[in-house]
Specification:
There is one protein chain. The chain is α/β, with parallel strands linked by helices. It has three domains: 180 residues, Up-down Bundle (Ferritin); 57 residues, no CATH class; 333 residues, Rossmann fold (3-Layer(aba) Sandwich). Helix content is 46%, strand content 8%. It has 17 helices and twelve strands. The strands form three sheets. Strands 3-4-6-5-7-8-9-12 form an eight-stranded mixed β-sheet. A two-stranded antiparallel sheet has the order 1-2. Strands 10-11 form a two-stranded antiparallel ribbon. GO terms for molecular function: hydrolase activity. It comes from Nonomuraea spiralis. This is Alpha/beta hydrolase. It holds the Pfam family Abhydrolase_8.
């Protein structure tokens, strides 16, 4: 009996010694996380995973010791078992989006994990021998070995990722989304479940890229662009080029891919499509000439018309891009391109990844890719104006974003889904716009504290408002709304941005749609609209120019015709050269709020408006709609231009 007890006590002593040497193997990693080696992104999940592994490690040694001690007691012995656990280092990693990384601390943590990955399997082997000699289960030894394998896997992956990050020119505190979702790729949450899809895309699967583009267009995952940015940064250059060569349009459409890369990919796609269309048209025209009149010839004519329409879209894009690099402007970048149908695009004057101030303009009703030249001119003009008043060495990027299907005037005002009077198309465009801004944030390279502005014009302000509400607090720093019929919000504060600025010409008929309350009946668009009330809630929420909305209002001078009535030209006149509205928008983009000509806010609104709830989607009706009456702004009338 005594000899057996002595053998068990020796085995227990071996377990205690092994525990003393190894139970703290992951404590250093926990301390590094507590010291904010990495904050944000997947830091929380990684910290929890490390804590869980540490707990398993210490429980394994405690279980091993307990098993042997119980055998000794069963034989009448009185074993002494010290505590085989250590206090948990406090970890305070923040959740949410990526905040920062300390390269030095991260390097130490990777080394600690490498050491644990080497030492723990050896400790597991020794523990297995001690438990076997005591005649008890060796499961705790297998658990120790498993923790070692986990640490080794983490160290190998992190070392590779950290090497990529150290090649970035960001300094010790790397401020890039690639860290948040690339450093601990498996630790960050993946609400869209696209981690495996991106892996397949890296292997050259074009259908996987299509799934990613589709996922970003629904706008449901605010982390997707950061994940794409991380995925792209961690690919080797050869893999990136293979993807661009194979699927230039898809790579050019991916939010989170650097702007310069998107431009290169989209221009490659533009050139390929231009050549292909020219070849197809030549073949179809020859075929059309050889054939007699008939159904098939009619079908060929339709194909020719569609290809000619794409040609005109390409020409419009090329002319818009040519506005960059002249008159002091930076080169234009093509950030998105979809040909066919109404078409879609995004063109930036200046590189948004390197800019101190980025303004994204969202156009409204009637916008098409074929007619994008006018909207591109406005974006270029906005860059010119902001650049004039910006402090020296300030880099500005001005983007025209047509990434949604804008309502067309010939669609009929009462068609439920395509009408300018319905928020349906704005809702469909809000997801792509929110995702596009996610991409601008994730690919931006640190230049101090950048300022992101989104300017919504006309129906584009409805899209902007809905996208802002989908990304409260992260969408942009400020919104500029001009000629806005509404944002689907009751208050400016509902939009979740720091600053909301509104400019409205007193002669703009579209902006005054925001004054029109809908019918109180169950079908809000049927029948004649209820009588006009200056501070009523219109079809898109509270009128942004209404004092009750709570936005900052800047001066927009009327045209020389005065306030005698509506002038549809006023709806497009906010970018007029040397106008007060253009100057004010330039100041706002630069954050020069003290230079903005503001409209005074009366101490009390003449017709207070209760908190409003955005109306439901309108349904079609065959009844006519009465136009609104001209409405001056409630502030003192400005004079002169």
């Amino acid at each position: 009996m005594g000899g057996e007890t002595a053998g068990l006590e020796e085995a227990l002593s071996r377990v205690v010694r092994l525990a003393g040497d190894h139970i703290s193997a992951l404590d250093s990693s926990m301390r590094q996380m507590a010291a904010h080696a990495w904050v944000g992104g997947g830091a929380g999940p990684f910290t929890q995973a490390t804590r869980d592994q540490r707990t398993q490690l210490q429980q394994a040694f405690e279980t091993a010791a307990t098993q042997i001690a119980e055998r000794i007691r069963a034989l009448g012995g009185h074993p002494t078992t010290p505590s085989l656990s250590t206090p948990l280092p406090a970890a305070t990693s923040a959740g949410g989006g990526y905040a920062g990384m300390n390269v030095e601390a991260m390097t130490r943590m990777v080394a600690d994990l490498e050491r644990a990955g080497h030492d723990l399997p050896a400790a597991g082997s020794q523990l297995s021998g001690a438990l076997a000699s005591a005649g008890v289960s060796v499961a705790p030894a297998q658990q120790v070995t498993g923790v070692g394998a986990w640490a080794a896997d983490q160290a190998t992956d992190l070392r590779r990722r950290l090497t990529v990050l150290q090649q970035r020119p960001d300094g010790d505190m790397a401020n890039a989304a690639v860290v948040g979702f690339g450093l601990f790729g498996g630790s960050a949450s993946d609400p869209s479940g696209l981690g495996t899809v991106l892996t397949a895309a890296a292997a050259g699967d074009p259908s996987a890229l299509e799934k990613v583009v589709a996922a970003q267009n629904d706008g449901k995952d605010p982390t997707l662009a950061s994940r794409v940015n991380s995925w792209w940064q961690l690919l080797d250059p050869a893999a990136r080029q293979r993807l661009i060569n194979a699927s230039p349009q898809l790579i050019g459409s991916l939010n989170g891919v650097p702007a310069a890369t998107r431009d290169s990919a989209n221009r490659a796609y533009l050139g390929l499509r231009k050549d292909a269309i020219a070849k197809q048209l030549a073949e179809l025209r020859q075929l059309e000439q050889r054939m007699k009149q008939g159904a098939r010839q009619s079908h060929i004519s339709l194909d020719i018309n569609a290809l000619e329409a794409e040609q005109r879209q390409i020409q419009a894009v090329e002319k818009s891009l040519a506005m960059g690099g002249v008159n002091g402007r930076p080169p234009a970048l093509l950030l998105h391109l979809e040909l066919g149908g109404l078409g879609k695009t995004a063109i930036s004057f200046g590189d948004p990844d390197k800019a101190d101030s980025v303004v994204t303009s969202v156009p409204g009703t009637g916008t098409t890719l074929e007619g994008i030249g006018g909207d591109a001119t406005r974006a270029a003009t906005l860059w010119d104006q902001a650049n004039i008043s910006a402090p020296s060495h300030t880099k500005i990027a001005s983007i025209i974003w047509l990434g949604y299907e804008a309502p067309q005037l010939d669609a009929g005002i009462l068609r439920a889904k395509t009408s300018v009077a319905s928020p349906y198309l704005a809702q469909a465009g809000a997801g792509p716009l929110a995702s596009f801004l996610d991409g601008l944030h994730s690919s931006h390279q640190p230049t101090g504290t950048p300022r992101f502005t989104v300017l919504g014009h006309s129906y584009g302000s409805v899209v902007t408002g809905m996208a802002a509400q989908a990304r409260k607090g992260t969408f942009a720093d400020q919104l500029i709304l001009v000629g806005s019929p509404g944002t689907m919000a009751a208050r400016a504060s509902d939009l979740g941005v720091k600053q909301v600025w509104v400019g409205e010409s007193p002669q703009d008929p579209v902006a005054d749609l925001g004054h029109l309350p809908l019918s109180g009946g169950r079908n809000p668009i049927s029948g004649l609209l209820t009588p006009w009330f200056p501070n009523g809630a219109g079809p898109f929420g509270t009128d942004p120019s209404n004092i009750a909305f709570g936005a900052n209002r800047f001066l927009v001078r009327p045209t020389p015709a005065g306030f005698t009535g509506y002038d549809i030209a006023a709806h497009s006149g906010y970018w007029a050269q040397r106008s007060a509205s253009l100057e004010n928008m330039g100041f706002i983009i630069n954050g020069q709020y003290d230079r903005v000509s503001k409209l005074p806010t009366p101490k009390q609104a003449p017709h207070p408006t209760p908190h409003l709830t955005p109306p439901p989607l309108p349904r079609p009706s065959s009844e006519p709609v009465s136009p609104p009456s001209p409405t001056p702004q409630s502030s003192p009338t400005p004079t002169g231009d």
